[in-house]
Amino acid sequence: MIHYKNEEQIELMRHSALQVSKTLTETAKILKPGLKTIDIDGFIGTVIKDLGGKPSFLHYHGYPFNSCISVNDVVVHGFPGKYELKEGDIVSIDVGVFKNGYHGDHAYTFMIGRPSDEVIKLVKITKESLYKGIEKAVAGNRIGDISFAIQEHTEKKNGYGVVRELVGHGLGKSMHEDPQVPNYGKRGSGPVMKEGLVIAIEPMINLGKKEVYTEDDGWTVRTKDGKPSVHFEHDVCVKKGKADVLSNYTEIEKAEKENGNLFADY
């Protein structure tokens, strides 16, 4: 069942989404080689608490951490641990915040130092595909229009692997609501989008092939060929004419550029 939101609910969701944006901004400021991913997760938990929210991911279906931190060939749902970030790594940090009865949930992929040119291009193209998908999130379009736009930019034009097993989703009082939002599909297919639908659009794009597998922990998803994967995610409200992006990358990007340990010139 699809739950549509009224203007008051949308503003509450915007607040939750921006709490995630603020958390990712603060996290961008501390990223550097040698930093353990478990310490990043602890920092994220503290920031969320200081902002007056609760980590959406903690204890969700038994998930034991505040955030998902996915390095290099980890697509999503990476467990924070003793791994220390290294020059040339890419790291997707996915955060959820529950506040005022609603969830915010989005992600950003950071580059530690300067990765290879092919990885930098993958990050750039994946981020572009997110916004191409958002352009289609308008009333009267179908979910497949979003899916097609992302797949066309990443797979058809650039030859990357689009993950099939994991998709975007509706968002609201529950972190995962209907409808599912795949990153692949046919234009003009799927449910018609109406005003007030809030969705998390999240391309998960592999440098190599699309195939992935889940580790024994039941959560960590990796590329089968061991090549890097990139993940970006925005919270978006469907409107007439133009989508309303509830989350905000502006301050994250600013912090990324100001942190000399991060590569942001792309």
Outline the structure in words:
Strands 8-7-9-14-15 form a five-stranded antiparallel sheet. Strands 1, 2, 4 and 5 form a four-stranded antiparallel sheet that branches. Strands 3-12-11 form a three-stranded antiparallel sheet, with no helix packed on it. Helix 1 (7-30) crosses helix 2, helix 1 packs parallel to helix 5 (250-258) and helix 3 runs antiparallel to helix 4. The chain is built from five helices and 15 strands. The mean pLDDT is 98. The radius of gyration is 17 Å and the shape is globular. By secondary structure, the protein is an alpha+beta fold. It has one domain (7-258): Creatine Amidinohydrolase, CATH 3.90.230.
Please describe the topology of this protein.
Elements: H1 7-30, H2 37-50, E1 54-55, E2 67-71, E3 74-76, E4 90-99, E5 102-111, H3 117-135, H4 143-156, E6 161-162, E7 168-170, E8 177-181, E9 198-201, E10 204-206, E11 212-214, E12 221-223, E13 229-231, E14 234-237, E15 244-245, H5 250-258
Antiparallel strand pairs: 1-4, 2-4, 3-12, 4-5, 6-10, 7-8, 7-9, 9-14, 10-13, 11-12, 14-15
Order of helices and strands: HHEEEEEHHEEEEEEEEEEH
Overall morphology: globular
Unreliable parts: none
* Widest sheet: strand ordering: 8-7-9-14-15
What is the strand content?
Answer: 15-25%
Structural class: alpha+beta
Instruction: State the CATH topology.
Output: Creatine Amidinohydrolase
- How many helices? The count is 5
CATH architectural name: Alpha-Beta Complex
CATH class: Alpha Beta
Look at the structure and give the mean pLDDT: 98
CATH superfamily membership, which one? Answer: Creatinase/methionine aminopeptidase superfamily
Query: Span from first to last CA?
Result: 40 Å
Instruction: Please summarize the sheet with the most strands.
Output: 5 strands, antiparallel
Radius of gyration: 17 Å
Count of spatially separate domains: 1
Helix proportion of residues, in percent?
25-40%
